[in-house]
Specification:
Blueprint lengths: L3 E6 L8 E4 L2 E5 L6 E2 L10 E5 L5 E5 L6 E3 L2 E2 L5 E2 L5 E4 L2 E8 L19 E4 L2 H9 L9 H11 L8 H15 L4 E7 L6 E8 L12 H10 L1 E5 L12 H5 L4 E8 L4 E9 L8 H44 L7 H15 L4 H10 L12 H4 L7 H8 L1 H10 L8 H6 L20 H16 L13 H10 L7 H9 L1 H10 L3 H4 L2 H5 L1
Parallel strand pairs: 3-4
Antiparallel strand pairs: 1-2, 1-11, 3-5, 5-6, 6-9, 7-8, 7-10, 10-11, 12-15, 13-14, 13-17, 15-16, 16-17
Helix pairs in contact: 1-6, 2-3, 2-6, 3-6, 7-8, 7-13, 7-16, 13-14
C-alpha cells in the first residue's frame, strides 16, 4: 500500500509545522517549492523527497551549499531511502519523517488530551526488579554485557557515605548503559513527599535546555508504582507540547521507579533525542532491573544521612547547653563553626576534613561543662589562677570525647584549638605544623569571634569591630596563627562579614553551615 509522507518540523521557526505529500516534497528558499524555508543555511533549491516505484520514499540533495543530512549523516549524490522517525536536516533546519498508511498507529489528534501515550509499563515491585537482573522480558538469561552493566552499577553500593556522590555515580552509569542523552534522579522529599531533583547527568548527545525531566511522567510513575516507557513523545498530544519535553529535545523517555520492599524512593528518568533510536521494551526492563538493584543503596545512604543529621543536632544541643551557662558566649558555637567551615573551603580541604570541621567545631568548648560556674560566669576579668583552671577545658573536652571511639578524629580540634603557632599556647605548647591542621583552622575562627563578640575582658565588655579583628589576624600571622590559615581567612573577608550578618538572626544560626554544604 502506498504511504503518504509527512515531514514534521522539530527545530527553530518550523517547529511543529507539517508538510505532507503522496509524490514529492521539494525544500529550499524558492517560493515555488512545496517546502519554503526562509533560513540562511538553506539553498534556493536544497533537496527533494520523492516516492519511487519500488515502494520507498527517497531523499536526494540538490547540490546544496550546506548539505542535507539524515540522522546526522551528510548525503552524497546518491538518493537515500527514508524510514519512519528518521531525522532529515536541510542546512540547520531539522524535520522528522512520518510514513502514514491505513495501519498507522494512533496519532496525537486521535488521543484524549489528558492521556499520556505510553507504549509499555512494567510492574515495579522490588522482587520483580531483582528477577529482571538475571532474566530479560522473554525470561531468557540476560546477555553477558547487560549482566556486566548491572554488576557495574552495583559497585557504588559499597561507597554510600556520601549520598549525593552515590546518586551521581548511579546516574552516570545508567546514562552510559542505556545510551541516554541525559538522566535525572528525582527523590521523594522526607517532609512533604513531593518529588525533588537530586542528580543530573549528560550523555554524549545531550541537547541544550533548561529542563531535565518530565514532571508529569515522573509523578505518574511514582504515584502508580509502575515504570513507564514512552518510545515516541511525538505520539502523545500532551507530552509533545510540554515545555520540559520540547525544551529538552526529548523524543523517547524511560521513567523508572526507585523502590525497596519498604517504600517508594523516587524516579530514575532517562531520555533520548530525535537523533537516537527510541527506547525499547527491553530497555525498560533493563532500566527497571538497574533501579531495583541500586535502590537499596540509595535507601541506606538516606538512612545514614538522617543518622548524621540527628548526630549533628545532638552535638548542637550539647554545644548550646554549654553556651547557656555563659551569658557572653551565646551564638559563639554557630559562628565559629561557620567561619571555620568557610576557611576550610578556602584552603580546599577534602570533603572528609570539612565534615570533621562541621562535626568537631561545635564541640570545641565542650570541656567547659567541667568548669565551675563561678569562673565560667564571672562578669569580670579572670585572675591568673582562675585562667589556669579555665584553660583545662581543652583537656576536659578531649577526655569527654575519648569515651566515644567514633569521635576520636575530632579530639585534636577540641584539645588543640588554643595552641599557638609560635608554641606559646596551651595545653601542650605545640608549635608550627605540629599543631593539627583542623585545630589551626578553628583557632583563627575562634579568636576572630572572641574579638568581635561581647566578652567581659573587652573595654566596656563590647566586641571590637571586624576591621580591628581582621588587622589582628594579619598582625598575628606566624605568631598566634598559622600564616597560611591567616592569609586564607583574610582572603574570605567578605564571606565572613556576610556570615556575621546572617548569624545575627536566630533562625539563621542553625542553618548557615547546612547552606554551605
Amino acid at each position: 500500500m502506498k504511504q503518504t509522507i509527512r515531514l514534521r518540523g522539530i527545530s527553530g521557526d518550523v517547529k511543529n509545522k507539517i508538510w505532507e505529500a503522496d509524490e514529492v516534497l521539494r525544500a529550499g528558499r524558492l517560493g515555488s517549492l512545496e517546502i519554503v524555508l526562509d533560513d540562511s543555511s538553506v539553498s534556493r533549491r536544497h533537496a527533494e523527497v520523492r516516492y519511487s516505484a519500488d515502494g520507498y520514499w527517497y531523499i536526494r540533495d540538490l547540490e546544496s551549499t550546506n548539505g542535507t543530512y539524515v540522522n546526522g549523516v551528510r548525503l552524497n549524490s546518491t538518493p537515500r531511502p527514508l524510514q519512519s522517525r528518521d531525522i532529515v536536516q536541510f542546512g540547520k533546519v531539522a524535520m522528522m519523517v512520518e510514513l502514514l498508511d491505513d495501519d498507522t498507529a494512533p496519532t496525537a489528534s486521535s488521543l484524549p488530551e489528558d492521556q499520556i501515550f505510553v507504549e509499555a509499563t512494567t510492574a515495579s515491585s522490588w522482587d520483580a526488579g531483582i528477577e529482571r537482573m538475571a532474566y530479560g522480558p522473554d525470561k531468557t538469561p540476560r546477555p553477558g554485557d547487560q549482566l556486566v552493566a548491572l554488576l557495574r552499577a552495583g559497585q557504588h553500593l559499597v561507597k554510600i557515605e556520601n549520598e549525593d556522590e552515590l546518586l551521581h555515580n548511579i546516574l552516570n552509569d545508567a546514562v552510559s548503559v542505556l545510551d541516554a542523552q541525559r538522566g535525572a534522579i528525582v527523590l521523594a522529599d522526607d517532609v512533604d513527599g513531593s518529588l525533588k531533583l537530586r542528580a543530573l547527568a549528560s550523555g554524549r548527545t545531550e541537547a541544550p535546555g533548561r529542563f531535565h525531566f518530565s514532571q508529569k511522567l515522573a509523578q505518574r510513575c511514582f504515584s502508580r508504582g509502575e515504570s513507564i516507557l514512552c518510545c515516541s513523545v511525538e505520539d502523545d498530544a500532551e507530552l509533545k507540547l510540554a515545555q520540559s519535553v520540547s525544551d529538552g529535545a526529548m523524543a523517547s523517555v524511560l521513567c523508572v521507579l526507585l523502590r525497596t520492599p519498604r517504600k517508594r524512593l523516587g524516579i530514575l528518568h532517562l531520555d533520548r533525542s530525535f537523533f537516537q533510536k527510541p527506547f525499547t521494551e527491553a530497555d525498560l526492563h533493563l532500566a527497571d532491573a538497574l533501579a531495583a538493584q541500586v535502590s537499596a543503596g540509595i535507601e541506606c545512604a538516606q538512612l545514614l544521612r538522617k543518622q548524621r543529621d540527628l548526630f549533628l543536632n545532638t552535638i548542637t544541643i550539647l554545644a548550646q547547653a554549654v553556651e547557656l551557662r555563659d551569658e557572653y558566649t551565646g551564638g559563639h558555637t554557630a559562628r565559629v563553626t561557620t567561619f571555620a567551615y568557610l576557611l576550610g573551603q578556602k584552603l580546599e580541604l577534602s570533603p572528609k576534613d570539612l565534615e570533621l570541621i562541621r562535626i568537631g567545631t561545635p564541640l570545641h568548648d565542650i570541656g567547659k561543662i567541667g568548669i565551675d560556674d563561678a569562673i565560667l560566669r564571672k562578669p569580670g576579668k579572670l585572675t591568673a589562677e582562675e585562667f589556669e583552671l579555665m584553660k583545662t577545658h581543652t583537656v576536659k573536652g578531649a577526655a569527654i570525647l575519648a569515651t566515644i571511639p567514633d569521635l576520636a578524629p575530632i579530639i585534636p580540634i577540641v584539645r588543640s584549638h588554643h595552641e599557638r603557632y609560635d608554641g606559646q599556647g596551651y595545653p601542650d605548647r605545640l608549635a608550627g605544623e605540629r599543631i593539627p591542621l583542623l585545630a589551626r583552622i578553628v583557632a583563627v575562627a575562634d579568636a576572630y569571634d572572641a574579638m568581635t563578640s561581647n566578652r567581659p575582658y573587652h573595654p566596656d565588655k563590647r566586641g571590637r569591630p571586624p576591621e580591628y579583628a581582621f588587622a589582628e589576624v594579619e598582625r598575628q600571622a606566624g605568631r598566634q596563627f598559622d600564616p597560611q590559615c591567616a592569609a586564607a581567612f583574610l582572603a574570605i573577608r567578605e564571606q565572613i562579614l556576610e556570615a556575621m550578618h546572617a548569624l545575627q538572626m536566630p533562625s539563621a544560626a542553625n542553618t548557615w553551615v547546612t547552606r554551605l554544604t
